[in-house]
Amino acid sequence: MKTGKVYIAGAGCGDFELMTLKLKMLIEEAECIIYDRLVNKEILALAPKSAELIYYGKDNCEGGLIQEKINATLIEKAKEGKNVLRLKGGHPFVFGRGGEEALDLVDAGIEFEIIPGVTSAISVPAYAGIPISHRGINTSFHVFTGHSKDDGEKIDFETVSKLSGTLVFLMGIKNIEMITSNLVNFGKISSTPVAVIENGSTCHQRTVVGNLETISKIVEENHIQSPSIIIIGDVVNLREKLAWFEHKALHGHKVLVTSEKTQAKVTSRLVRSLGGESVECPFFTLDKKSFTIPRLINFDTVLFTSPQSLHAFFEKIEDIRQLLHLRIGVAGEKTKEALNTYKLQANIYSNSYRTQELLNLLTEKEEKVLLVRSTSISAELAVYSQSITELETYYVDKVLRSDEEVIAYINDVDIIAFPNACTVKTLIDSVGREILATKLIIASNENTALKIKSYGLHVNAFGNGEITEETFKTCMETEHCIKGKKDGVVNRRNKGFTHSARAAS
């Protein structure tokens, strides 16, 4: 049997989008992934369903025995002929024990590659508005492991205290009192600024600031936990002006995205760009339907109600010149953008995604209409004078979920985003309305918002056919949604408030 190859890779820190393109490619092709506790689960979601996932969740109080098991597993899986991805948080060669694993692979005669990752030592301070180096302040920075091991070299605090550059301690939160007191005892000025950053580059990032004398108490009072990193030096003072990530609209918030999977990816990326964390839980899937485009010469107008129906139509059409005589209508901005990708402009446009509102724009010019959509609404078409033929291009199918699964998803978030009224009904029919009463709720359009309100629930904001950045920002402007800063801490925003829906009143 041919021996496999091992890739020792860094997944970056926290933020899913900080992984490298090379790592993304390797994950999508992986046969076996051995990963640590600090690896973002969204990264693992990219792995093929056939991939074997093996978790070794050691923290910084565990070491040798688990590491030996990891090394042995790498060798075992490679000898099974699998290409193995060893996935670590941060960078594998920055206190990641990647070198030890590579040496064991060399001894076993197994081929390997090192895939660098974004290390928290530099990236996490940047997310907290702290440059690791800054002209006029320091010309060096020094990175240390903050926890000691029996087999490791102890930190020479007498030497370290004399360094003028920025000091960075990784995995040191449990030893912060020992670290700061030793630095002061060996001559470091007690007023030297210190920042501690918890859960860096994630929506749960928190930063506390003090000095060598006060920081231990501040950390204790604010219950700062691992994973955290410690930054010591005058560059910390720049945070007062440069802090950016913790000011994002959704920082500290977790959003349940209930759209179908394609749209859910778009919404999730928007959530991350606003500093939040998304949890995807689609209640419907869109599956292409087998259909035949009728003779277009028999129509004078074609209407598209969604990007999905439009793309399905254009995948089938053999010659775009068949549309030359037709007036084209679209519902919603995204559908118009989809039409534009085919170098076509809409003659009829409704900024709403409601089919009825698009149909209401028809005039006497549009006598024979082809309505391209997902499911039939023939019962609602009788009120229109035009001859309307429906062309269904895809199915909308429910995703079967247990009540327990839905409840677990809801309890894990503080914002719920609804794409349509059907999803609202499905969710509430499943678990009831009470569980939603303490959540922030947003909707993609007014019709969906009205459906939510019919259950006696508040709607904090709704979009004009889609959930946008402005929808989220409007939601966040409601009373009590944003907590201020206090004592150098960017606090997590509280969950459980019932808000008046300013934008949806």
From TrEMBL:
Record EC number: 2.1.1.107
Domain of life: Bacteria
GO molecular function: oxidoreductase activity; uroporphyrin-III C-methyltransferase activity; uroporphyrinogen-III synthase activity
Gene3D superfamilies: 3.40.50.10090, Cobalt-precorrin-4 Transmethylase, Domain 1 (3.40.1010.10), Methyltransferase, Cobalt-precorrin-4 Transmethylase, Domain 2 (3.30.950.10)
Annotated ranges, domain Tetrapyrrole biosynthesis uroporphyrinogen III synthase: 267-460
EC category name: transferase
Keywords assigned: Cobalamin biosynthesis, Methyltransferase, Oxidoreductase, Porphyrin biosynthesis, S-adenosyl-L-methionine, Transferase
Domain Tetrapyrrole methylase stretches: 5-215
Pathway: Cofactor biosynthesis; adenosylcobalamin biosynthesis; precorrin-2 from uroporphyrinogen III: step 1/1; Porphyrin-containing compound metabolism; siroheme biosynthesis; precorrin-2 from uroporphyrinogen III: step 1/1
Transmembrane portions of the chain: none
Pfam family, one: TP_methylase
One Gene Ontology biological process: siroheme biosynthetic process
Protein family according to the UniProt entry: Belongs to the precorrin methyltransferase family.
Stated name of the protein: uroporphyrinogen-III C-methyltransferase
